[in-house]
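Students often ask why we bother encoding 3D structure as a string. The short answer is that it lets us treat folding as translation between two languages. Here is a chain of 62 residues written in the first language.
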Amino acid sequence: MVYERPPPGLARGKLAAPAWVVVLLGLALAAAIVAFFVLRHRRDKAPDSTLGPPSVPPSSRR
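And here it is in the second language, the structure alphabet:
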């Protein structure tokens, strides 16, 4: 029995895509991760805009 195999590379499987699509998805994922941590850091450093003490103590689960 002879099996015909596709050529090696990224264009294999159910969802074949060119290499630039894989690179673009990787860059988008990396940018989303960086944006998440930057926004989280800014939120934690933001001054409290309410007057008086907070009604709920801050969480220690960070």
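Translate back mentally: Helices lie at 19-45. Keep this in mind for the problem set.
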